[in-house]
Amino acid sequence: MVDRPTTRRALLARGAAAFATLGLAGCENVTDIPLAKRILGGVGGLNRRVQEAILGQEQLAQEYELGDVSTSFYANGSTDPDDKHYKAMAAKGFDSYKLVVDGLVEHPYELTLAELRAMPARTQITRHDCVEGWSCIGQWTGTPLQGVLDRAGVKPTARYVVFHCFDTMDDGDPSGPTPFYGSIDLLAARHPQTILAYDKGGKPLEVKYGAPLRLRVERQLGYKMTKYIRRIQLMEDFKDIGQGKGGYWEDSGYQWYAGI
Ligand SMILES: Nc1nc2c(c(=O)[nH]1)N[C@H]1C(S)=C(S)[C@@H](COP(=O)(O)O)O[C@H]1N2
Ligand SMILES: [Mo]
To answer: 140 and 181 share a domain?
Structure first.
């Protein structure tokens, strides 16, 4: 039997050959270009089945050393939410921030940042791969999402974790700016490297990186890692949110499943 890393590398090499390195936006220590773009263009379903068969969704993403951390880390998408409530909170160090956990749970609840910081913490140095073709390595600290979900008691009918964010995207929609949101399934949510991160490089997240709380879901592409999380909603499906595809970027054409 072929060992898994070898198989994965072979798989990656084939994809990587097809894509040249794009402008790397200040990130150093860029290793190979991920298979980002293979996920696009309608092969998501097949890609997912192939990947799961070969790798298993439970596989850990590679973790790096402190010396591998990129000296500058590119910030992408929203970098400074316009929302008045958000701005007021940010001006006071997010003292009044409360994360809402609700939807298909036994006990909906709210968590302050201090309460999140008092929960079990995990620090991980991982590579962020954006679908646009850049990668940066960063150190993240946060609490595993699994613990936050367990405390709420996820109902058996729940299948997805939906993240509602403070930022909106001004994409010319006549009805006004579109709220940013994203979603993952419970398998990804319970992965040991899936954390609600509040620190980057050992310091509270800067606004541009998603303060006060952002998702890290290390086996997926950057667009799944929602920043500026205000509410976590457990749902049976996400068809009634936004355009119904499970996220702002998914509504704009990206695949819902963005495994790497
Ligand atoms: N709320 C929110 N989360 C978001 C985005 C966004 O625009 N808004 N952009 C996504 C994309 S495309 C990427 S690559 C990463 C960028 O994270 P970074 O700014 O920490 O590099 O955030 C993701 N999460
Ligand atoms: Mo991205």
So the answer is: yes
